[in-house]
Amino acid sequence: MINVSIAGGTGYTAGELLRILLRHPQVNIESVISTTSVGMPVAEMHRDLLGETDLVFTGTFSKPDVIFLCLGHGLSRAFLNDNNIPTSCKIIDLGNDFRNDPLFNERNFMFGLCEQNREQIRTANNVANPGCFATTIMLALLPLASSNSLKDEIHVHAITGSTGAGKKPGETTHFSYRDNNISVYKPFTHQHLEEIVNILKGAGNNDLPQINFVPMRGDFTRGIFASVYTKWNGKMSESAVIDFYEEYYQSSPFVFVSKQPISLKEVVNTNKGLLHIEFHNGYIHITSIIDNLVKGASGQAVQNMNLMFGLDETTGLKLKGTAF
Amino acid sequence: MINVSIAGGTGYTAGELLRILLRHPQVNIESVISTTSVGMPVAEMHRDLLGETDLVFTGTFSKPDVIFLCLGHGLSRAFLNDNNIPTSCKIIDLGNDFRNDPLFNERNFMFGLCEQNREQIRTANNVANPGCFATTIMLALLPLASSNSLKDEIHVHAITGSTGAGKKPGETTHFSYRDNNISVYKPFTHQHLEEIVNILKGAGNNDLPQINFVPMRGDFTRGIFASVYTKWNGKMSESAVIDFYEEYYQSSPFVFVSKQPISLKEVVNTNKGLLHIEFHNGYIHITSIIDNLVKGASGQAVQNMNLMFGLDETTGLKLKGTAF
Amino acid sequence: MINVSIAGGTGYTAGELLRILLRHPQVNIESVISTTSVGMPVAEMHRDLLGETDLVFTGTFSKPDVIFLCLGHGLSRAFLNDNNIPTSCKIIDLGNDFRNDPLFNERNFMFGLCEQNREQIRTANNVANPGCFATTIMLALLPLASSNSLKDEIHVHAITGSTGAGKKPGETTHFSYRDNNISVYKPFTHQHLEEIVNILKGAGNNDLPQINFVPMRGDFTRGIFASVYTKWNGKMSESAVIDFYEEYYQSSPFVFVSKQPISLKEVVNTNKGLLHIEFHNGYIHITSIIDNLVKGASGQAVQNMNLMFGLDETTGLKLKGTAF
Amino acid sequence: MINVSIAGGTGYTAGELLRILLRHPQVNIESVISTTSVGMPVAEMHRDLLGETDLVFTGTFSKPDVIFLCLGHGLSRAFLNDNNIPTSCKIIDLGNDFRNDPLFNERNFMFGLCEQNREQIRTANNVANPGCFATTIMLALLPLASSNSLKDEIHVHAITGSTGAGKKPGETTHFSYRDNNISVYKPFTHQHLEEIVNILKGAGNNDLPQINFVPMRGDFTRGIFASVYTKWNGKMSESAVIDFYEEYYQSSPFVFVSKQPISLKEVVNTNKGLLHIEFHNGYIHITSIIDNLVKGASGQAVQNMNLMFGLDETTGLKLKGTAF
Q1: How confident is the model over B205-261, as pLDDT tens digits?
Q2: Which of D105, D107, D212 is closest to D153 using CA atoms?
């Protein structure tokens, strides 16, 4: 059994991690850390866990084999400075602290996109879990980047659910505002762009074209829907590209290419990524969907843990989707 | 023209009042008061008003003929203490300060349920605008109360939209929580119960039975749907009661009895109240719907203003519903 | 391994059954029957199953150990007449054909509410799976009925998600109608009332008072929220009743009593039932929530299968909830 | 008073037209035509109109000054063939029959985008009302097209509400499917593209670049949100372009440029179009929002009627928005 500690235990990604790990056959959760709720039963905060756990929030960890950092962006570095985590304990960071800046003291954070870095993750001691937007867009583009096929500007619109904005309530997550509403935020300038560019280059597309990225706020809770296109000057036909994608993801147990157009709820509450590819007017158009809290955060973190501890990649992650 | 001032100008009911009054043919809005946003254009706060007004929030009023208090429950009394409002200026309070306690200095607040107190409101200088739950439930029961027909316990479930909880974001108005969710709050103990009891007694049902009231939070933004029933020992048949209701509301231009079952969106964005009545198993069952921000707040406030200033009751209030 | 056949394979409950059974460690799905889609891959109809199964709809079954009937209300009897199902094959009917009328030829259908009939189900060959409304309301009342404590009229409002109305689109499941809307249907006369009355009497409350049941259509997809109250003349205090409920459900692995008020999404995508109990004004008020497609249909059907085949009741049913 | 007839009276756009025209001070609705519901009160079909009209569906028109065709795409031509409409009666077609093919017998349909063709509409006898997608996108691009500034490919993602798909229920408008879901349909090939291209060319951008248009289905009922960008090689700065847009729309009473980012609900239930413009990375990015049923259909149709009959363009169209 893997002894697990979760730091930042009251937030959305920690809750989702608990939902997954409480059903994971190889995991013992030793501690759920919170600075604000020490002594409170975990199921009083994450109310859907009633009847599933007697865990209580603690102020610190004991002797975990791995610690998940669910702290909010920018807080992981401070946590590692303040807490002496033995080098024998692996770290999986769900924040963005080490995605673009992988060094911390003697630790080196591997970028945890399993579909790209599967083998390196198996031997990594520390993993920077990818962001949810980046994961969605990367799954759409990785095969092309790996074959150095991204030559022309890339156009991306991606719509995210409200859970991507975290637990703290605010104007744009107020139900009265968000319900039946749509808006754009940080067009062309979203902070995930750097992460996306780094991965695509790392995948083999060194001379990367400009990416035009328009993020949108959707009026749903879970999921990201990305619509991605770029001019296609390659030699492969539509069906050849689809075959190429299927081959590329053959060893990835959670990513599938759909022959039919896809809709977001086909992946909600699962660790899957679904892709659909069409050629039009000289463009290749790819739609890509994930659940931002699962494949875009806590599910992918567990997938990384499975790899790091030599387990089957899908252990504890064959989750029943909601579909509706 | 009626010179209007609005106190508490940044909240939901003030925004709704502005939406209505900016189209009212007999109104000039002289000031929109805010303690926090003086100098900000009103349309920067209430963004849907872009292109409709150049008003700017001010710190105080000038010489209004009427002032609407949109201050949040419990703050109207303080506002009246702090501001010397001339007795020539009428007051319409959208808070709950004077609903159950109508006296303030020499001012006497008339309870502003037009369908009950139409004639008294015409001559009132100060009106306490009814609460949204109370309005919905009162419209369902007023005809029975007026004929002293409420003899047995009354059972009420009423589901409210998120705008009823106001602008300040919180846990139960977070989109991630509220979307696709339902919950009960303050069952049997909601603060509007006192208001409801007072009105029903005032309407002629002195010996009022117990009211069992279960309020619920719905996952929609606007509207209240109330399901009300009580044992029926009266002599009238179902169709006779329906006729009686129609007669009771004949002079009320916004309340209608529907022969068909009703659904909430039939009244959204209007000042209407719709009722549907059925007899079953010895019970009379009444469903009642309003838009909480219009008939349940700002629309009813304007209806009161119209009466107080001798205008046709419907002036500026024949609003196009959304239906969808 | 249990060989399973599913009749009526294209509908909502069949899809949900597939989502559960494809992850069930003791099940082999031998056939998914459809009269309209023979030859179509199952994952083309239930699109979220892409990558999870290669099953194809067939016209009939082979040699199943158990057949699930997901045929729509009233069609199970016809199916059994038309298909010669060997007596060695168990039947679990998700329709309402045998709930109130358990006899069919030599087969006798046990009512499959596990929390009430656990021991009889273990030895049953045929089970009539309870309805979703009935399950929600029964979980709220079973402990009281079992102690013959229901003496006074029972008041129930229950709000259901759209999936309860099935796959066939219609006026009241049109998104343009349903979104942000609420309505009542079949108040006091819903067809599930008979089922509820039968169970409560069977549980020991022979002299049952009238049940006033107002079903409502909610603007969410999954779940039923029931608010139930009745006068409390019993001797137990609120906390004693809560203890009694906890004791009653101690051997039921999916039913829990929450000390805190509950909201619907705490059970969505799980097989759990959550209850919350409060005393007010001489009434006992119970809120009860389930996911109508899981505990209210396909999950409970699998729970019944587990019991019928001697498996642990929770096998394959410890599902990760969505929470959001 | 203008005598109005509405053909196709039971659909969504007819309902919306009724909501508007019943409040229009210069209109008398003489007939609401339906082939399927003759004799039924209009308020039984469009239930939110209860208390607002006693109109009954008829089989034909009498002597209207103008007839609105709300028949569904492709059915207007047949209606005009089957019904002898006197040339003295003006026609406003809400279908797409004459948008790209304006000739019908001796009648010539003017394209009814008021912001482009205001003067020609004033003297037109027949108007083809623009499509909802086209209206949204045109409002974003008209100023650039009018100055022949569209030189590089145009990228458009536009998300539509469910009412755009009409009243007939189907798979993608089923609440269980649509709620909390997002999907793409007809990417790069939507039938509105031709309409858009025609207008932009007609506005002065003869040598039009390719338009890449990805339509999406949103999980809301009303509105279209378009995100549009193209490379900017012009000389004007961001603020100069904003000034240019404001000047272009100065005489258009319903179109406004917002300095702040916009969200869809700022226009819901109004006839307004809101635009927001930003420059990024060499691109001009424009977001554009309308209510598809109002400015995208029935509101714009009334705006056209006002122009055709010499009324102020805004008569009956200063509608209160819902905001929430």
Answers
A1: 989 999 999 999 999 999 999 999 999 999 999 999 999 999 999 999 999 999 999
A2: D212
Distance from CA of B170 to the nearest CA of A (A): 6
Using CB atoms, which chains have 3+ pairs under 8 A with A? B, C, D
The DSSP bridge partners found for residue D283 are D231, D280
Strand pairing report for A110-111 and A66-69: unpaired
Q: What single string gives the DSSP state of each residue in A247-271?
A: HHTTT-TTEEE-SS--BGGGTTTSS
Residues of D with catalytic roles = 132
Residues D266, B15: C-beta atoms closer than 8 Å: no
pLDDT digit string (tens) for B275-320? 999 999 899 999 999 999 999 999 999 999 999 999 999 999 999 9
Contact C137, C113 (CB under 8 A): no
Contact D214, D112 (CB under 8 A): no
Q: Looking at beta carbons, which residues of chain B come within 8 Å of C280?
A: 187-189
Query: pLDDT band at D50, cuts 50/70/90?
Result: very high
Question: Which residues in chain B are contacts of D319 at CB distance < 8 A?
Answer: 319-320
Cβ distance of A212 and D281 shorter than 8 Å: yes
Q: Do B269 and D269 touch (CB under 8 A)?
A: yes
Q: Three-state DSSP class for A193?
A: helix
Q: Which two tokens stand for residue B280?
A: 């079953």
Write the CA distances from D204 to A213, B226, D199, integer angstroms: 30, 56, 9
- Alpha-carbon distance A53 to D107, whole Å? 74
| Candidate list B70, B89, B114, B132, residue with the active-site label | B132
Give me the domains of chain C, ranges plus CATH numbers: 2-130+295-308 (3.40.50.720), 132-292 (3.30.360.10)
Strand (E) or helix (H) holding C7:
strand C2-7
Q: What interface predicted TM-score (ipTM) does this complex get?
A: 0.96
CB distance D30 to D36 below 8 Å: no
Contact B254, B261 (CB under 8 A): no
Q: Cite the active site residues of C.
A: 132
B1-44 pLDDT tens trace:
999 999 999 999 999 999 999 999 999 999 999 999 999 999 99
Q: What angle do CA C72, A267, A200 make, to 5 degrees?
A: 160
C214–B157 CB contact, under 8 Å: yes
- Cα C194 to Cα A290, C99, C213, C286, distances in angstroms: 43, 9, 11, 21
C183: nearest CA in chain B? B263
pLDDT digits (tens, 9 = 90+) for B150-199: 999 999 999 999 999 999 999 999 999 999 999 999 999 988 888 999 99
Q: Do C220 and B180 touch (CB under 8 A)?
A: yes
Say yes or no for a CB contact (<8 Å) between D219 and C175.
yes
Chain B residue with minimum CA distance to A47: B177
Give chain A positions within 8 Å (CB) of B162: 174-176, 179
Question: In this complex, which chains have at least 3 CB pairs below 8 Å with chain C?
Answer: A, B, D
Minimal CA separation from B179 to chain D, in Å:
9
How far is B128 from chain D, CA to nearest CA, in Å? 24
Determine the distance in angstroms separating the CA of C23 from the nearest CA of chain B, rounded to an integer: 26
DSSP structural state of residue A132: H
- Residues of C with CB below 8 A from A16's CB? 323
Check pLDDT > 90 for residue B73.
no
Helical H runs in chain A? 12-21, 42-45, 76-82, 114-122, 132-146, 175-178, 192-202, 238-248, 299-308
CB atoms within 10 A of CB A63: 11
Given B229, B264, B287, which is nearest C181 (Cβ)?
Answer: B264
Tell me, letter by letter, the H, E, C secondary structure of B221-235. Answer: CCCEEEEEEEECCCC
